## 1
Amino acid sequence: MKLKDLFQADLVKEIESSGNLKHFKAGETIVNMDSYIKHIPVVISGSIKVIRTEEDGREILLYYLTPGESCIVSILAGIKNETAKIKAAVEEDADLMMIPADKAKEWVKKYPDWTDFIFDLYQKRFEELLDIVNSVAFQKIDTRLLHLIKQKAQLYHSKEISVTHQQLADELGLTREAVSRVLKQMEKDHLLILSRNKIELL
């Protein structure tokens, strides 16, 4: 993904002069809960997962960021100089354009395509969060689990993904035992194949 695919030439020049392109390894944390946002990430390659963490340590996956996207929660917190209400971690090795928060605020008034970018992100994430509320309230564990596995398969462009039962449990806010039980039933139903720290969709 290139910046010129997202923004007009004059904004691209400002982003390249003000921002800092950085490479992050899978597992690295980009944004911590309750931290002030000084730089806003725009994903150039790779993917980021955005998580909500509770005081007792439980987590739930909110959404993924893929090339051409940014975190709307980070943008709003950065612009308002507030602390983050989420945690963002690298799902797969990623190149991120880190944009200073003060510039992001300045560009809202200066560049209509930057404002459109923010509103488009807001709408997309709002719809995804509605889906999460719907799944938690109305869907069974197996449906939620299969949806998450398919999401990861799309991210990695492969039907075989490297993931532990504990990681899936953490992202769904479930116990590892419940996830393992449902995965074994899915394997019996010929939906997937389980192996050590790997799952293959059929």
## 2
Amino acid sequence: MVKIQSVTTNSHGERCGILGGDILVSVNGNPINDVLDYRFHIMNKQLNIVVNRNGQDIAFSIQKPEYSDIGLEFATYLMDEKKRCRNNCIFCFIDQNPKGMRETIYFKDDDERLSFLMGNYVTLTNLKESDIQRIIQMRISPINVSVHTTNPNLRVQMLRNRFAGDCLRYIKMLDNAGINLNLQFVLCRGINDGAELERSLTDISALENLQSVALVPSGLTGHREGLYPLTPFDGASAKSVIEIANRFGESNLKSKGMRLIYPSDEFFLLSNTPIPQEDYYEGYPQLENGVGMIRNDTEEFTECLENSPKIEYNREVTVATGESAFGFITEMAALAEKAYPNIKVNVRAIRNDFFGGSVTVTGLVTGGDIIKQLKGTALGETLLIPDVMLRAEGDLFLDNVSLQELEQELSIKVTVTERGGYALCQAILGI
């Protein structure tokens, strides 16, 4: 049962008499506990809805077009609280955050509903077999799963959850039921790479409904006091991951017609291996995991330059980026300057002093580090930063520095660019 916060004006719900404050009990005889129950059961044309009002159950009947909404609003998107992660993973990035950040940053979620609705990855350790059956019944697909290893004992050790090995069987249950699967492996050097990675890729390659697999390195900050000792990947170990991934990918190409397994861009950068061509990424199914982002952005940037008006742009801008993307952004800047000689693009790699360790990705650059490293330097007419540096609301960096503070401290207009090569190109050209 879930409390209805409000009812949209002139909606099916309002017209039949449902009120804000009512408790939604059931739809067509099915109990409603969260957003998945609700969204699944209101899709029918004929709805019999029961609400509880002041302790009394009241029934309503609604006839509507299939799939259309009925206008009920709830206090939260999920209609209840996010599920908190029950794991204590040896590589958990949240455990490596410095003290004094926003409270929400320290919350660990592991919620299968967010996997379907928002694309989040889940470990399945929060689920019971009845939850898996609900996913199958509702045909929720795809499901995004953080696997890390298919070795049950090793998974228990890595997630530090005694159920982590047993729930691997849920992956097979989902596959057998025709649920598409996107998988993620956070690799820890010397732990689940090498022979263990080969075992895992052998196991998952047998899945009938495998859509994609991302291999990403564990992110290690400078705040790991008292945590499990982990070693960052170097050039040789990163190259080994690529070689294993490509061997299995080539085998999948022959047997299934698709590569399916992709190392993240970080492995290519660490090993100084050229970024693959666009066809390697098969439509970029793992772009959100940093797989193929450099290639995708390069293609977009080049296309944008080719299609931009051939006029004389005359401006100087600065692009702030993480250390790992510095080489790529510098190449894009050079292309822009070659196409438009009156444009000057300064690219500044921001060292991550806030997190420290081996953190070099752009999305974890903080406002304080930008200020410290760029204050007093010539930046041109605007400073370009990507939106991944900011929280979802687009106003604060991870260290709580605001965009307004950044502009005041650097005495420059800051332009936030959306992700992708098109957006970067247009921001550089000022169009």
